[in-house]
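Bump. Still looking for Zinc finger ZPR1-type domain-containing protein C-alpha cells.
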Amino acid sequence: MEGATKPLFRDITADDDVPEITEIESMCMNCHEQGITRLFLTKIPFFKDVVVSSFACENCNFKNAELQPASKIQDYGVIYTAQIKKPCDLNRQIVCTNYATIKIPEIEFEVPPAKGSLTTVEGVIDKAIEGLLQDQPVRKIMHPEDAEKIEVFVGKLQKLKVIEEPFTLILDDPSGNSFVENFHAPSRDPDMKVNRYKRSSEQNGLIGIGDDEDVDDDLSSDLIGKDEVLAMPMNCPNCNAPSSINMKRVDIPNFKEVVIMACNCDACGYRDNEVKSGAGIEEKGTKITLKITTVEDMKRDVLKSDTCSVAIPELELETGLGTLGGKFTTVEGLLSNIQSQLAKSNPFILGDSSHDNSSSKLKKFCEKLNEIIEGQRLNVHLVLDDPAGNSYLQNPFVPEKDPNLKIERYERSFEQNEDLGLNDMKTENYC
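Sorry for the wait, here they are.
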C-alpha cells in the first residue's frame, strides 16, 4: 500500500533504494528475436518528467537507450524574443523541448524542432556551424557550388559570435515548456520579450492534443448544473498519479458566472484550482488597481482569468499573459502563487547552474513579497490587467465605492486582440 501512494515520476535520491523499473519483452529490431525493454520514470531538472528507456538483446548483444519527455503540456504556447547586443548575451542559457523552433531573422536562420537540449545562445550557433560543416569536404568535391554557399553562411554565423552587429534570437515553443534565461529575474528583462499565445489547431496536432476550443465549449455548456459538481478522472499535474478534477458553475456576485475546476491529489498532496469564464470575451479590457493599505486587504477575493497579467509597480514586478493561469483565490493567495511561480519560470536561478547574485536577488524579492503579505509593507499597488475583461477583485463596500479600488475599461490594442485571437475572427458574412 505504501508503494501505491508514491508519485509516478520521482526524483532520483539515495533514500529511494528500490526505484520502480518496468521490464517489457519486445522484439529486437536487429535480429528479430525477443529482447528486454526497461522503462524508468523520473524527474530531471528543467526537463521535469521524463521516461528513460533502454533495450538489450541477449541474442545479438544489440543495445539502445532513449530519453522521452513526459512533462505536462502548458495551457499556452510561448515565444521568447531576446536581443543579443553584448558578448555576455551569448551566455544566456536556453532550455529547448523537442517542439521548440529557434530563429535568427537577421540572417534568415532557423533551427527546426529537434531533441530537447540545455544549451546557450553561443551553443545554438556552434551546433549549427558543426552540422553545416559535417560533410563539407565531400560536398566540395561532389557539389562545389553548394559547398561555397554553405561557407558563406557559416561566415555569417561566425560573425554572430563576435557581435559585430546586434541580432535577435526567437524561440517559439507551442508546448510552453521551453525557457530562455532572464538576466534580470525576478524583474523584467529589458532585452527580452515573452509572449504567450493560444495554439492553433495545427500546433495542437503537432504536440498530440485536441483543440482547446472543444474543451471550453463543453465547460460553458449546460452539461454542468448550477448545483452539480462534475468529477472527471485525470493525472496529477505534479506527480502524474491517477487523480480527479472537480468542476462547478459558480455565480460571483456583482460579476458573472464562471466555471471553477479544482484538483486534490491523494498521492502527493498537490492542490490547485483554475477558473474558466462562462461568458466569453468582453467588448473592452479591464484594468483593476488596488492600493493595499491594511492586512485586511489580503482577504479580498480575486478572480484572475487566464488572460490577465499581474503587476506590482513598487517592486517592478510584471507577469505576462497567462503566466499563472486562471485563479479564484485571495490577494494573499495570488501573491503566494507569484512567489512559487518565480522559481518555476526562472529555473536558472536555482540549482547548480545558478549565480550567487541571481539567487540572492530572488531571495530579497521574495522577502519583499512576504512583507506585503504579512502587512509590514503597505501602500503598494496590485494591478490586474485583463484584455478579455474577465477578471474581478472584491469590493467589500458594495454598493458603495471603494476608495482604494480603481476599475478602468479600455479599448484593446491591435497586439492585445492578436493575443486573444480576435483579429482573425470573422463574425459577419461568414457564410
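The chain has four domains: 3-69, 77-197, 211-277, 285-419.

Edit: fixed formatting.
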